[in-house]
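Quick one - inputs below.
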Amino acid sequence: AQPAKLLVLPGDGIGPEVMREVGRVITWLEKNRGLAFDITEDLVGGASLAEYGEPIRNEVIEKARAADAVLFGSVGDPRWGHVGFEKRPEVAILKLRQELELFANLRPAKVFDALVDASTLKPDVVRGLDIMIVRETVGGIYFGDPRGIETLPDGTRRGINTEVYTTPEIERVARVAFEMARKRSGHVCSVEKCNVMESGLLWKEVVTDLHAREFADVKLTHMLADNCAMQLVRNPRQFDVIVTGNLFGDILSDLASMLTGSLGMLPSATLGAVQSNGKSAALYEPIHGSAPDIAGHGIANPIAQILSFAMLLRYSLNLQEEAKMVEEAVSRVLESGLRTADIMSDGMARVGTSVMGEAIVREL
Amino acid sequence: AQPAKLLVLPGDGIGPEVMREVGRVITWLEKNRGLAFDITEDLVGGASLAEYGEPIRNEVIEKARAADAVLFGSVGDPRWGHVGFEKRPEVAILKLRQELELFANLRPAKVFDALVDASTLKPDVVRGLDIMIVRETVGGIYFGDPRGIETLPDGTRRGINTEVYTTPEIERVARVAFEMARKRSGHVCSVEKCNVMESGLLWKEVVTDLHAREFADVKLTHMLADNCAMQLVRNPRQFDVIVTGNLFGDILSDLASMLTGSLGMLPSATLGAVQSNGKSAALYEPIHGSAPDIAGHGIANPIAQILSFAMLLRYSLNLQEEAKMVEEAVSRVLESGLRTADIMSDGMARVGTSVMGEAIVREL
Ligand SMILES: CC(C)[C@H](C(=O)O)[C@@H](O)C(=O)O
Ligand SMILES: CC(C)[C@H](C(=O)O)[C@@H](O)C(=O)O
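Output:
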């Protein structure tokens, strides 16, 4: 078999530190499982701004297009707060999503038994929680035109953004959600604000039609975004798969993550449409940010980055067994009582980034 | 003194039942505090659709304009799910907001000591919680043009909504938030998505400028909407006043309410700009919905509606003392152990809507 081509983009802040621990896992898999990886690394975000004056180069986009998968760290750096809207570090991830048509962001919110007390919610409310949010990521108000800030003749300024969703954009992400539900508990909840937004009304209609045509075996419910935010706090275990647009997905997936109390544990995958070169791209990243306040201290939790790599093994390389091995190694390390600072609790052993990474490799 | 002119709009579901209990409070105030109210009642939402074929009549809007304040129940009725976008019951509240320029929705999220266990969050996280969300309610994506669903030549359908905010729209709601913070703990957190939306970028700039010009004594911080959703779950007591746009406010205020675990307790006020008749309108409503599932059973909690009336006394009629009397009567009834079904817990006495209303009047 050809080696799997990976583009690794550690980015800013703790990105490079936690990515280093994935390196250990890769080395182990090459040595012990006969796998081969062809890895290219490059800069994005503030790191790329510092070197090239832009948050991501076209060359990097092309490398991403050619790769079997992209493993992303995190971007964002307060030192680049002044660069203006066009050059902000976030452009790196937004451009990758748009250029590679990475339209379906899969955001699991899962509570690990060993960490149930880390949540600010009562253990009885979150124990066993396992939600998958499928968020549309190349449409909606993030990318719609017209947009911008204009100055009217009388000096008033006006900021404008446009939410746009078309039938095929809604269908393809809903399809991902329905297929996901078939492998899980068989329930999709579609979320919009159809009571105030026509784009949400179309969303609801398209999801309903697709369901009737192709996924009648899956249970489909609908919920308004404001109610969904409430229900995630009131009784999050009522959900299996949630499918929603870009902006609601941004907020609701972060909310769902926080229910677990351990952001440093949560991976994500963003799956793409088939491109002109016949490949479909995919990008994997932890849901936590670049955490500039703790960067360089060697205390960041590498688990979310490592679990993102496990998602890559599963979804992009179809290495189910190896994905499971990595996930189980993580669970065992947690059960053994090792904790990074962010998930520390009484009676546990506090360790840094690299000790955690080594422990996971040892459990493999 | 002239009697205070109130327009009472009970609406759908439990609206009429809980409004009846406010009637008792009004009667008591007239008898014992020498106050006079001139009250008109009318239909909105499904109730108006049933009678007049539209969710709100212009006549009702005009009555609202002429009143000193509007006391609103709730709208929404599954029997009117088929009427189409233009006629849905929600139009009643959206039209009132827009026509009376009710631009600043004040949504307190407060945890009553007696009900701290009602929250799904740990008591240590929410005890003493007291947040005020100031949500813009006549702008943003709720009302921007262009909007609608169109069919393209190839049959694809496109749903469109437009988020628009202008300098004066942002300034006036930010001013309400800063003034509110001065009477509270002196901290405003302004929330947007300036990292992806230009309307959010303008929002942040305008709030920052106004702060520097007029409110330098108040502490101002900024937060992205996704992070705000997380922080509300992680550590909600970090907030005092949150100011945000219409759509983020819709989601975040519902999220914040749910942290208290007792939606049936929470009132809201929406304050308006000065109108052509020299008056500024204001509307008061509980944050809970019409709860069609329990309507007519006499078990709904009337407290949110009664506390909405207390807000009316305070903000529209400047009756600080009477507002406090009502609020304290509610607290005492809770301390005495009476509970409606929604806030019931072990060892408390379960009562229905009217027993709760009577108990509050008795405590006055
Ligand atoms: C970095 C930012 C542009 C991004 C978003 O808003 O989509 C992030 O919050 C996310 O959820 O991936
Ligand atoms: C009824 C509905 C239109 C409304 C809104 O979305 O604003 C409600 O959710 C609210 O928050 O007052």
